[in-house]
Specification:
Structural class of chain A: mainly alpha
CATH topology of the domain at 240-274 and 302-590 in chain B: Beta-lactamase
Strand order of the largest sheet of chain A: 1-2-3
Number of strands of chain A: 5
Distance between the termini of chain B: 105 Å
Number of domains of chain A: 2
CATH class of the domain at 240-274 and 302-590 in chain B: Alpha Beta
Order of helices and strands of chain A: HHHHEEEHHHHHEEHHHHHHHH
Radius of gyration of chain A: 24 Å
Shape of chain A: globular
Shape of chain B: elongated
Helix content of chain B: 25-40%
Oligomer: heterodimer
Strand content of chain B: 15-25%
Number of strands of chain B: 19
CATH architecture of the domain at 240-274 and 302-590 in chain B: 3-Layer(aba) Sandwich
Number of helices of chain B: 23
Largest sheet of chain A: 3 strands, antiparallel
Number of helices of chain A: 17
Largest interface: A-B, 48 and 37 residues
Chain lengths: ~425, ~600
Amino acid sequence: MVFGLFNVASATAGASTVEWLDFSGKLGKQFIWVGTSLVLAFLLLVIEGEFFIRTSVIHYAINILLLLAVLAVGKRIGGAKSWFSFGGIGIQPSEFAKTGTSLMLAWMLSRNQDRFNQWGSLFKAVAIVSIPAALVLLQPDAGTVLVFTGLILVFYREGLSGNVLIAVLCALLVTIATILSGASTVHYPGAGAATGAWILWGILLSIGGFLWATVPQWTVPRRRKRNRRAVLFSFAAALVLSVGLQFGLEEVLRPHQRDRIHVLFGIDVGNPDADYNIRHAKAAISSGGLTGKGYLKGPMTAYGFVPEQETDFIFCTIGEEWGLMGTSATLLLFTLLLLRILALAERQRSDFTRIYAYAVASILFMHFAINVGMVLGLAPVIGIPLPFISAGGSSLVGFTLLVFILLRLDAERFSVLR
Amino acid sequence: MKLRERQWIIGGIFLLISVIYLGRLVQMQVFAHEWKAYASRLTEETEKLEPARGLIRDRHGEIVVKNKAGYDIWFTPRKCSAAGGLDTLALAELIEMTPDGLARAFRRAENYATYRPSRIQKQLAAESYARISGEMWRFPGVEVRRRSLRTNPSGLASHLVGEFREVDQNDLASNQGYRLGDYKGKSGLELQWESTLRGKRGTRHHIVDIRNDYREPAQAGMLDTLPVPGDDIQLTLDLELQAYGEHIMANKRGAIVAIEPATGEVLAMVSAPSYGTDLLTGRDRGANYDSLINHPNKPLFNRTLRATYRPGSIFKIIQGLIAMDRGVLRPSNRIVCDRSIIGCHGPHRFDNLEEAIVHSCNPYFHEVMKRMIQNGSTGSIFSDAHQNLGTWSESVRTFGLGTDLGGHFPGLRSGSVPDTTDYDRMYGRKRWAYSTIYSISIGEGELLTTPMHMANLAATLANRGHYITPHAVRGSEGIERMESGIDDRHFDAVIRAMSTVVTANDGTGGRAATPGVEVCGKTGTVQNPNGNHSVFIAFAPADNPQIALSVYVENAGAGGDWAAPIASLMIEKYLYQDVTQSAKEQRILEATYPFPEFPL
């Protein structure tokens, strides 16, 4: 079933590959990569699943080494040092690091059955993810780092407290509120004009103070102290985050970087170039309408209005040429694929395979959510590919590796008891 | 909660994001029309296909203004740099620019847009293009675009034809479909008949790429339209007569307007000095315009329509006609030439109307107007004037004076025929009497007319009491017969007098005599501190008028000396196509008034 889905996804990739690459000459290369991926998929299916489990550590180590190497001798493209260049072929080790990290995480978590009840195993798990993430951040490639943070879903499934997820969500909300309020100018009576963030901070302080003061009313006496501390800690953290973020935005970031963040939140930055990409992307998708303009008939994407349309903005091509039908079908396929991987994970007897499956789902989910969200103007403009659809050899091979290892492990679910 | 159940939460997060994205997609793709409009603005571009502009012909079909090709040079910086640059020195020479000028143009183009072409040189002639076209391959990023320009090969009637040039900010703001870089009529007939001459622009819709290159027709060309050429217009001018008029007015300042009395068609409109229309349409327009606008003789000033002069003695004809029509004067009435109030000239003492017109007797017409204005009807000279001037002004206006003559000449000054309110404003209500304003009785004072008005007066006299709205373009709308309201029979005496002016030994217009034709005319000498203006109006032949005209020569002296012979030459030219009075012609051609040191 997953295999079938994958094929459909792959076919979509092939179809949309043709339409825009027809003119650019990158099409041939992409076909070679697709061929390479198919051969690789076949090889992966032949290899014993046990092999992947036993070589997890080696796999991980090789990836770390590659990430280190690319920092040293990598080729700088578009401001990030993330490519090895062999002749005409570029290879991006961060695409493979996702697989290595997933394997390593699965290996480690499946051996430590304490479910994050001890700080040690949490620390180890975080370290496994953080090391490659930090190396990628040095390139810098914010998108891939964001993908690594998606692995928090794996932690959650394997026992991390739900409070952490909620805390992350709250931090996100505070961040958004800070950026929105920080960009506005408010005239305070008696104090002149200043950033609207002061209002936010005032609200945070008063709510925190109110909760702290009213703790005795809504808790049983023996938990009072603990709750007070929790309230104090969380609101202090929120305040520190908010103030720090505002300071960083205003004082540390350069104006064009700040503009990019503001554009994301729909704040008018008064610079038509700042939101150029996203404007054109939205226009392209919107112009597709219900049924699209037809295969190869989208002027926005065919004639270069949408930047990076064969990689990060591939979803625009689907939107313009296939319309809502094409985009919703793509959404549906990805959703089914993700849910299918979850179902597949839950039927495993092997902890390793289950954890690995969750890692795969998380990684695919982050790619999907950020890539499509970016094009729709709902997520930051961060360049990461749409799995199996975007052009690019490394990412295609990387995802093939990621998914087919899972398929191979799944195929052995009855034969091995781990 | 068991850990296993956390799969539902994680799955729920996946589903939630998908549903949010789906909602966003529905909103964007089905409902967000502003984004769709934005997309088509980006990807569609309309190419305009210029229609051929209508030609301008004279009354015989001769071409006055036609189209010619001008070649603009355009430059796309990106295409040039992509191909490795070009030899700027060679290009500058080829397209007739200085190397500095070319460098400046390149910088401007670079600043405008690297992917879009900018115009770096305008309106090269066809000969230059022939030379350039073979060399274009040497200059990447440079292209030649053809544009339709106007040319008036004869250089005649430039004031009337007007300018055809690039639109300015006002035109762009006028919402008439002009776009930056378009050309249009900016003055004269080119402006007045713009909608006829212009034709309809065709369009071709293209899908463009990010570099604005055309890639494919939009919607399979279903919205495309072909240009519709503009209509020709035919002038009523006689190009030969116009040419002759401009020829004999050389080195003088003044104006000639000739009208066919039966139709109101203007046969010639000469404003001297003139200039070639093409001076103001070509590439050197700026420099030419500067030298023309600063020239002491004001060649750009259209004297036929814009110069206002006092009518002088010629006005006496109108005075006599109105008085006769009111019954206060008979042609046989004699009036003593009493020079105590108002001066006069010549040896006459006691003229009748005819003689008074021939001698241009000032006291005679002072008395004639007095009979109309100060007629004793109220017992007060102030009330009399106040009551009677209004109707008098009305009568004068029926000759076209002080009106826009039907409005066929934009820019025509109406001139001035003072009436009661004007004098009330000047002197106070009933603070003036005929004695205050009598100078208008002999065509001085506050009266002002243009050469066009005076030619129209000549036509009105030729027609014995009516004129047809004067116009310069065949098929103009609103051509009407305008009645002066003066009874036919009153014209006999006046026309006899005008004939005598030309034929009598002591007539002031003897130089207007023309072999083979009876010319009727009247001289005028307009007082001017820099030298009086020489004025003459005439029509001929007397029994079947074919041409009526006014002639003005500024600062030249008496009307009979210069304006009259010019009128004679024009009449002969028009009626017989040939001028036999070579001595007269020679004398006029040699005359240079008034600034010989500024030849044009």
